[in-house]
Amino acid sequence: MKKKGNRLVLVKLLQKIAPKIGAKVLLEPEWGIAGQIAYKSGRKRYFRYSTLDLNRMGASEIARDKDFANFFMKRMGYPTIPGKTFFTDHWAEVIGSKRTMDAGYQYARKLGFPVIVKPNSRSQGVGVALAYDKKEFYRAMNAAFKEDNVVLVQRPVYGKDYRLVVLDNEIVSAYQRIPLSVTGDGKSSINKLLIEKQRRFKKEGRDTLLKLNDPRMALKLKHQGLNMRSVPAKRETIYLLDNANLSTGGDSIDMTKYVHLGFQKIAISLTKGMGLRLCGVDLMIDGDISTKPGRYWVIEVNSAPGLDHYFKIGRAQEKIVEGLYLRVLKSMEK
Asked: Which UniProt keywords apply (predicted)?
């Protein structure tokens, strides 16, 4: 739980915009993450973290489960990332499955290394790793199993990573997500550049905490022939993680005004097909989101897309997020 002094952007936004429609927000005071929205009509709605009373529970639960969501998206004809789920020994025994970690390794060999390993029901890039060999695979699986009894093993796909946020029939925001990186000055080590990046995050009001001892960073650098003491050349960009989540230090480029109509239709149709009204659609595009759809994959869908980091990009993004949640508040009263 997040303590009272570290409330989410969503909480502050709801408290700010609710009075515009005559609604009141009652916040649970100890943790500051759960609340009630009371409308003039007498209707009451609730929220916890970034989850609001807008999407139906069944659809939200399917979206949270990456494997189930992939099944339904694939059946609807959307290109999903090839992969399969595997279980902790205990959970495999409980459900009567032979898909243990060792079976996962055999599957990874069949796919061909490297493979992506990710907890099935976690978000924000938690536990996501790219494994290049047997040793790295087992290390990644053990780390992922600390987060979830179910872990996905997937073939990596390459391109530009985008998040599109859909509300009913409209794309309300879209941005490209870029993995955590540092840019060299020719003098500073990667470790020092990361410390400086953390200072910059704090100054900008971004609460992302960079874990300098994250083993995924060490592995990523190892495969580039580098380590934390390495000094990148001036203007040389070094990537430190394979996932592009903003919550793990990734950066973003706002693309809201440039999304091709074809990708707009894909994201809106997918959101409806998954039974959702508010949805974060994550796409990996072999090309650019501003051009006609060609080769792409649906990475996942998110029924409670947190927009904290997007909100902090700039004033234009603040207005987009405020407008989105004002419309969400109005929709929830119906």
From this structure: ATP-binding, Ligase, Nucleotide-binding
Between CA 52 and CA 231 the distance in angstroms is 45
Question: What is the distance between the alpha carbons of residues 20 and 6, in angstroms, rounded to a whole number?
Answer: 24
Could you tell me the two tokens for 40?
Answer: 């003039």
**At residue 108, does pLDDT exceed 50?**
yes
E strand intervals along 193-323 = 237-239, 251-254, 278-285, 296-302
d(C-alpha 240, C-alpha 205), whole Å: 22
Beta strands in 77-169, from DSSP E residues, in sequence order: 83-87, 115-119, 129-131, 150-154, 160-167
Neighbours of 134 (CB within 10 A): 12
Confidence class of residue 6 from pLDDT cuts 50, 70 and 90?
A: very low
Domain 82-154 has CATH 1.10.645.10: no
State phi, psi for 67 to the nearest 5 degrees. -70, -50
Nearby residues of 248 by Cβ (< 8 Å), 6 or more positions away: 124, 125, 180, 208, 241
Q: Measured between alpha carbons, how far is 122 from 99 in angstroms, rounded to an integer? A: 20
C-alpha 45/C-alpha 36 separation (Å) is: 6
- Residue 309 and residue 207: Cα distance in Å, rounded? 8
Gap between the Cα atoms of 313 and 49, Å rounded: 20
Give me the architecture of the 54-80+158-179+243-334 domain, per CATH: 2-Layer Sandwich (3.30)
What is residue 195's three-state secondary structure? Answer: helix
**Domain boundaries in the chain?**
4-52, 54-80+158-179+243-334, 82-154, 181-240
Cα–Cα dist 304/280, whole Å = 7
Span 144-184, pLDDT tens digits:
999 999 999 999 999 999 999 999 999 999 999 999 999 99
3-class SS shares of the chain: helix, strand, coil, % to 5: 40, 25, 40
